[in-house]
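FW: tagging you since you asked about this chain on Friday. Here's the raw sequence from the shared folder, copied in full. Didn't touch anything.
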Amino acid sequence: METRLIPVLDASGLRSYLEVPGNTYFEAAYNVNSLLSGAVTLDMDLLDLTEQEFDVLHKQNECKLIREQLHEVSYKKIDALANNRSPRKFLNEQNELSFRLFRLEREIKKACP
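HL: got it, structure written out here
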């Protein structure tokens, strides 16, 4: 499999390149984007991608944010149960986030070959 150099930015704005396996730049960017932490992001300005491919990468970032929110809500729900409070509010929020995540992942799956 071929590798591509993918530009990334750290929190301070410093650009670096990661060598990532992928037959195309989109495939490599898609693979590495899911592994990047919040402090390091893809440098979208230097990636030569189509509008649809940019859209997929943005949706992938939204999915990461929703997963982080789900993680926080899960801890709040557990905390509510531990303190004998009703977790209903957190269950509703968890359901809404799960549904949004499902829809985004389905859209990504349809857009990717």
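FW: Strands lie at 3-9, 15-21, 41-42.
HL: agreed, and The longest strand covers residues 3-9.
FW: great, closing this out.
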